[in-house]
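Why do we bother with a discrete structure alphabet at all? Because it lets us treat a fold like text: something you can write down, compare, and reason about line by line. To make this less abstract, here is a complete entry for HHIP like 1. Read it the way you would read a sentence in a foreign language you are learning: slowly, and without expecting to understand everything at once.
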Amino acid sequence: MSCCHYYCCTPGRLWLSPIGILYFSTIWVAPVMLHPQCLDFKPPFRPLRELEFCVMYKEFGCCDYQKDQELMSNYYQIMDHFDYHGYTNCAGFVLELLCQLTSLMPKDPSTPVRTIPGLCQDYCSQFWNTCRSTIPLLSDDPHIAKVKEDQTSLCQYLQLDDVDYCYPHLLSNQKLTQNLGRVQSDSDGCLQLCLEEVANGLRNPLAMVHANDGTHRFFVAEQVGLVWTYLPDRSKLRRPFLNITKAVLTSSWEGDERGFLGLTFHPKFKYNGKLYVYYSVEVGFDERIRISEFHVSTNDMNVVDHTSERVILEIDEPASNHNGGQLLFADDGYLYIFTGDGGMAGDPFGKYGNAQNKSALLGKVLRIDVDDNERGPLYRIPPNNPFIHEQGARPEIYAYGVRNMWRCSVDRGDPHTKEGKGRIFCGDVGQNKFEEIDIIEKGRNYGWRAKEGFSCYDKKLCANSSLDDVLPIYAYPHKMGKSVTGGYVYRGCEYPNLNGMYIFGDFMSGRLMSLQEDRNTGQWKYNEICMGMGLTCAFPGLINNYHQYIISFAEDEAGELYFMSTGIPSAMSPSGVVYKVVDPSRRAPPRQCHYDPLPVRVKSNLIKFVPQETLIGVEPSSKNKPEPQPTESYDWLQELIDRLGELGPDLATPLPTTTTTKPPRQSRRKGRRRKGKPRTETAPVLLSGTVRLVGDEQGRSDRGRVEIYIDGEWGTVCDDLWTTKNAAVVCRQLGFRYALKAAKNSEFGEGKDLRILLDDVQCDGTESSLLDCKHPAVGTHNCAHYEDAGVVCGNSEYVIEV
């Protein structure tokens, strides 16, 4: 077990979790499990490059090569203070303690700062007797400096409450180290994972997709017919990406299966702007499913051109249930459409049902070619579709005999070997007894209504020797769940232990499950997934519970895994949440999973994400811990005022805040708005160099004409030599991270009633104020107010249109 300076796997991060939780009317008991964590509050990892200093931890731990080199440099700086005798006696102690040191910058306020790790008493005594002269070089803790000459006091200060976790006994405690880096499971094989909340306040979120365009945006669809854009920082655009609520057929009834059901982007969306949607409509007295093509707007990359809709395919639905809804592009570039069997119960349509009838499009996997469809037919039939030459069969059919496949996905393949790449996994919802997981193959019959799972449903059809059906890779009985939600094979970068694991769930029972293929036998091993209890998930941002009704799964552009669930399964209830799956046992080495999203040109206001879900089974570190606030539009000026205090009536007035919320669970208190700090009655004295932004017609606080306060008066700045480096100084001074634009030519109006105080300002971007930059004397200029300078600021590197 490795513990390294800045990235440490410390005694304080290893915990037993013998706690159970009442969950979904079923008692889920988390077993006694150990989840070692590093002091950056993430799981340990295997370094990409072999360590040269802390070599005892080169196989697995919390040090990467860069930190190992920093430790080595620190080690030699310390040992330079010693002669040969001191070096001989203390080199080993210094090396061990450096490689075990707690992070100097803990991310959790409840974690005490330790500059020397928790030591076992025998080791501490030996260290003090031999090398106490090294203590000032290892630690700047004032209390350690005070007690360092008293062995008893020092060792008492360094000891831990639980001796199992002190150094070095921790390293030889096999109970704590034998499963280090492995996904933890109990005797029944229930895997312990955690979650991270990503989005909330959604109405039956049933699809989350990415555009594969390098921006790492993700798009979440609600059953009512709205699709929302989320940026990589999880802020949500206030303007929806797509709004077809007037056309979508759905209702507020719990369990209504109609509505907006599927969304996918063309593989070449980055170049052609095409996307496809699957939704329920009412045409006259008929209910239908409709597959349409849209184009993204040429004026806004975050909005669909609603006038561009072209209906690719419509299919009559004889009943209101079993509507299918999955759309996806597979590795072959074709569009796959997964339809339900038409509804009711037992597929009662015709002699053998819709699913076995190859002249019907219901109960099928369809495959069509939508490329180059600007002229001619809206879609073509791929030349190798399996039934293209079979008389009476619809040529669109790729596979048949399905009941109601709900959520399918394409395996990206092993990141290194590409094994498994291109496989299509689906969850097919059962009738009375079984739910199943299938791998879709061309031309195959998946058995419905002859079979349900591995068992016969229609005994006469089941006995037909010509059925030639393919069996599922896994089926489970209704005592485990009654409506499967298909998932994904994990192929992300962040959690290597999950690679190759197919993770899925059940809508009714709320059960999370996994399958792992045995490469030798081809069999799939089942493991249930449980939420880590005790302190397993007790790190910033992680939770260990979720709403019961698991609607869908997703992966982001980087391949990380998510799922969506809701507390009330109604298309009108804003209780839906998007969760990211987190493995607390092991992560990828630092920087291995780094990516740089392409810039996003944003024209809509942003709603900052604020998590609402909470960790359960763990006492909070402070009884007065503030409640989370609802997700709301972010008021940057108000944040600035909160930080610096009231700056007087001359500053721009903060905007009103709009809030999007979701109904809380019964056990959760209602969210309430944050109250500002009490304001004093006396206005503070303004310092020369203070700036403000004014003149934006919409009253936005992150942009405007730059006005500066110098020697008792406000004035403007001329845009001669005005650059983004100048703008960066202004934005940073106002509390923003980035300058998105240096505005010129009085873009935010002319400050005619003020003097021009600065001209020809030249900054390198690091100054504290514009007065620190190069400029002529205050008030000296050769410009007019039509050249007043402005800025657009932000906290994300996205291009903002004014």
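What the structure line is telling us, in plain words: The chain has a mean pLDDT of 83. The chain has three domains: 55-177, 210-590, 690-794.
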